[in-house]
Amino acid sequence: GIQVEQSPPDLILQEGANSTLRCNFSDSVNNLQWFHQNPWGQLINLFYIPSGTKQNGRLSATTVATERYSLLYISSSQTTDSGVYFCAVELGSGNTGKLIFGQGTTLQVKP
Amino acid sequence: NAGVTQTPKFQVLKTGQSMTLQCAQDMNHEYMSWYRQDPGMGLRLIHYSVGAGITDQGEVPNGYNVSRSTTEDFPLRLLSAAPSQTSVYFCASSSTSGRANGYEQYFGPGTRLTVT
């Protein structure tokens, strides 16, 4: 089956720093999403980005589908950015919500 | 909209007991899914549904049953609980319409289950 690998597994930043999280996947996908799981366990969808670039405030994401990777950029990090960041992909020709998740990147932002 | 709701928030079961985890969404989404999350791991798909009356297995379906009689509800049944089913369970929904934000998934708050 498809492999989804995220790096780095852990990241510690000082508030205000920038970071880049990476997601590699082993096969062609038609659905790629980035999620943030906050320290209380809630999962929030950040981006639906099977290809191209999107931006939302201090966060942006780029997926290069032909090279099978996606990047999540966090600029001017804040303590509220702490938590676990997951990328998830779906195989096949449709979008059914049948996502395969990576292991996540745990981010800690220190004040 | 309440979004995706799950009950209960916490549950403790003894080995061999059965129970149903409830999930409901009020966004008229066709797709619904159940995932489990174990410590230090990403989420793994248990079962999913593309519409009322249609369900299919995910990565880790053993020990769980689902049914989808309405668009809004997608309960997950544990037939005979085992300690290996201790986990946090998340329900999610998404739309087929691929609106401006695409097929993004919305997650419920989770149910933390402990089997002793």
Give the beta-strand count of chain A.
11
Biggest sheet statistics of chain A: 6 strands, mixed
Identify the quaternary structure here.
Answer: heterodimer
- Considering DSSP H and I runs of 4 or more, what fraction of the residues of chain B is helical? under 10%
Q: Report the C-alpha radius of gyration of chain B, rounded.
A: 14 Å
**Helix percent band of chain A:** under 10%
Alpha-carbon distance between the two ends of chain A: 41 Å
The secondary-structure element order of chain A is: EEEEEEEEEEE
Task: Give the class of chain B from helix and strand content and strand pairing.
Answer: mainly beta
Q: Which of globular, elongated, flat, extended, rod-shaped describes the shape of chain A?
A: globular
Task: Name the features.
heterodimer, A: 111 residues, mainly beta, six-stranded mixed beta sheet, five-stranded antiparallel beta sheet, globular, B: 116 residues
Overview of the molecule:
The complex is a heterodimer of chains A (111) and B (116). Chain A is mostly beta strands and 111 residues long. Chain A contains no helices and eleven strands. In chain A, strands 2, 4, 5, 9, 10 and 11 form a six-stranded mixed beta sheet that branches. Chain A has a five-stranded antiparallel beta sheet with strand order 1-3-8-7-6, with no helix packed on it. In chain A, strand 7 (59-64) and strand 8 form a beta hairpin. Chain B has 116 residues and is mainly beta. Chain B contains no helices and eleven strands. In chain B, strands 2, 4, 5, 6, 9, 10 and 11 form a seven-stranded mixed beta sheet that branches. A four-stranded antiparallel beta sheet of chain B has the order 1-3-8-7, with no helix packed on it. The termini of chain B are far apart. The model of chain B has no long low-confidence stretch (mean pLDDT 92). Classes of the chains: A mainly beta (111), B mainly beta (116). Chains A and B meet through strand 4, strand 5 and strand 10 of A and strand 4, strand 5, strand 9 and strand 10 of B.
